[in-house]
Design brief:
Elements (H helix, E strand, L loop, with lengths): L9 H13 L10 E6 L2 E7 L30 H7 L9 E6 L3 H10 L3 E6 L6 H12 L3 E4 L14
Parallel strand pairs: 3-4, 4-5
Antiparallel strand pairs: 1-2, 1-3
Helix pairs in contact: 3-4
Bound molecules: 5-hydroxymethyluridine-2'-deoxy-5'-monophosphate and zinc ion (ZN).
Zinc ion binds next to helix 3.
Length: 160
């Protein structure tokens, strides 16, 4: 028998895991996922959500109005969750993220030892947060690039 040819690449695999992780998010507007990889092994995963133990039904997913009644001061970003959930040293690891990280996440990425970022969407390119991220990442020698896999969709069938 010949080997199966439809297998996915490492890059497609790990970006797929990041997008799958994003599916755990309860944010009705934006679901972000992150997957940290070292030596082709997953060592951390995360998605955006309220801190552990928060009562989801008490928290608000609003985006506008009094800041204290919006999600923004409370939600933990996917990248930070992936870092905090990681199971070993992140030195020289790669983080796959569905969205280019904000400046706060970029700082955490640098401090954790992650050395490469592969992102799918940069829909906030040109924003102050993205510009600040680009500046500190370059300054800290953390490389970043867009996803280069061919797959834009992966179907996961639960079957025998
Ligand atoms: O780096 C990030 N990582 C991350 O997980 N997020 C989360 C926080 C919010 O739950 C959501 C952004 O919400 P919105 O698009 O409604 O502003 O994405 C947001 C950013 C900033 O781009
Ligand atoms: Zn962030």
């Amino acid at each position: 028998m010949e080997k199966r040819l439809e297998y996915i690449s490492w890059e497609e695999y790990f970006m797929g895991v990041a997008f799958l992780s994003a599916q755990r998010s309860k944010d009705p507007t934006t679901q972000v996922g992150a997957c940290i990889v070292k030596d082709n092994k997953v060592i951390g995963m995360g998605y955006n959500g309220f801190p552990k133990g928060s009562d989801d039904d008490f928290m608000s997913w609003e985006r506008e109005g009094d800041i204290l009644n919006t999600k923004y001061p409370y939600v933990v970003h996917a990248e930070l969750n992936a870092i905090l959930n990681s199971i070993k040293s992140l030195d020289n690891s790669t983080i796959y993220v569905t969205h280019f990280p904000c400046n706060e996440c970029s700082k955490a990425i640098i401090q954790s030892g992650i050395s490469e970022i592969i992102y799918f969407s940069d829909k906030h390119k040109g924003s102050d947060s993205t510009k600040a991220s680009e500046l500190i990442l370059k300054n800290a020698n953390v490389s970043y690039r867009k996803y280069e896999g061919n797959k834009l969709k992966l179907e996961v069938l639960f079957k025998d």
